[in-house]
Amino acid sequence: MEASLGIQMDEPMACSPLCDRFQEEGSFKNHEQNFKLPGVKKDIEKLYEAVPQLGNVFKIKDKIGEGTFSSVYLATAQLQVGPEEKIALKHLIPTSHPVRIAAELQCLTVAGGQDNVMGVKYCFRKNDHVVIAMPYLEHESFLDILNSLSFQEVREYMFNLFKALKRVHQFGIVHRDVKPSNFLYNRHLKKYALVDFGLAQGTHDTKIELLKFVQSEAQQGSCSQNKSHVTGNKISLSGPGAPKELDQQPTTKTSVKRPYTNAQIQIKQGQNGKLMKQSKSVDVLSRKLATKKKTISTKVTNSGVMRKTASSCPASLTCDCYATDKVCSICLSRWQQVAPRAGTPGFRAPEVLTKCPNQTTAIDMWSAGVIFLSLLSGRYPFYKASDDLTALAQIMTIRGSRETIQAAKTFGKSILCSKEVPAQDLRKLCEKLRGIDSNTPKLTNDVKGPASNDPTFSEKTDHKAAHLIQTPQAQLSGNSLYEGDSNGGCGGRFTTYTTSLEGWDEVPDEAYDLLDKLLDLNPASRITAEEALLHPFFKGISL
Ligand code: ADP
Ligand code: MG
Ligand code: ZN
Q1: Centroid of ligand 3 to alpha carbon of 227 (angstroms)
Q2: Which listed site, 169, 232, 301, 332, has its alpha carbon 20 to 30 Å from 87?
Q3: What angle do CA 392, 397, 399 make, to 5 degrees?
């Protein structure tokens, strides 16, 4: 096959190809031999049509990922001399914002290609179709391997994740979507790759030029297009023990009926003890035009004065609905706070969930902490929340409501919680969920997730496992944060694994110390990637 490789497109674009990163070989599921579904075949044909120059270089074999914003394909290419190379082709949805695309590409070209950060080989464009060609890394499904990983593998996984995060953070990139499906892991080759900079943002001193533009552009966009952002600085949680009027929400547009019945959360913004309210946090920063359209249509609209921070709230706009579950008309006329928000609710840091406008690389460390929590507890997803307020409530059940409230104060957010939820001991929690009994220091059974919406759970769970899992759930429902949440609440899917005992009977305190420092509710004191790599938990692993 002929290959004059490099960026191939019919118009110039702000990216430059980097040289080969790593070449994959052996021990892979053979995608070529997969029987292609008719839909996949059609998609591949369409891609060849949309970006014809791909056909000169690649044989597209299969579709390996399909998300809201992209489709990823496995292709092979005969490059110069040597064997066929496997390439991942990420086809971005045509409605993606050009700056957003260029920024994603720049993250890959500038920061990628080393330290477990995915690199890029080429980029193709035809009209509004952009395809990013990356080295292909065959990877495991996190859920499939979660409970068969040895403790040593978990250590290595986390170490390599921090290596990747240290790298991107050094470039002033906040990834903002750190989760297992964006951190590819090849267990056999012990290779790792952080992918998907589709939501990335720059720190104030970012070295990725286009990220500077992404942030301002997106924020400007959201300000001009959405004249209805809610200023959210106050959050209140209420359970069944809370006053009855909770269930008799005022007949305002903002008495949002949430999918769960026993938790009511409101966000308020206040100054000098006087507070204003909003009803629901809203996505402000959309990564793509498509998302923007979607979020606009789903958000609760308030109107009022646009303001950037809580401190700029004019005193004339205070009201008397503070600490009640009502939203008064003054509060209904508030503007929404503009704060970047992205990612998957279950992985979002408290400062993201409460829409703190100053978000740093610390948000990625929180997400890494949630991954670590899954690895230590054997539950994935650990937090399963359909919206931010549910996610925040779930965090409280693990980290404590008082602690969460205190931390939120440090970044200018007030949270009201009608019932106190104690913080949990992380070791006890993880051991319970993993099925390690303190009396019998070994695994008692396959680990089960308590997702209430998974029909297989009730079928397969045995009494012992059910008992183990009920403990945190009872606690949760006692605090009424999850009960009735049709979205499953805090839980993971039930799966059966060959559990590896290796190391799990003696998880060192350092593991939970690191977890505690990652799940630090206060972003200012949360451990950084660089510090995490030096944590005693990783003693003996070298960079
Ligand atoms: P999206 O923005 O749609 O989430 P991602 O960049 O995360 O797109 O890619 C989606 C999926 O495609 C990933 O979760 C992964 O399974 C697969 N994928 C992406 N890049 C690669 C790659 N370089 N090698 C192998 N698989 C990849
Ligand atoms: Mg992704
Ligand atoms: Zn009010």
Answers
A1: 19
A2: 169
A3: 85
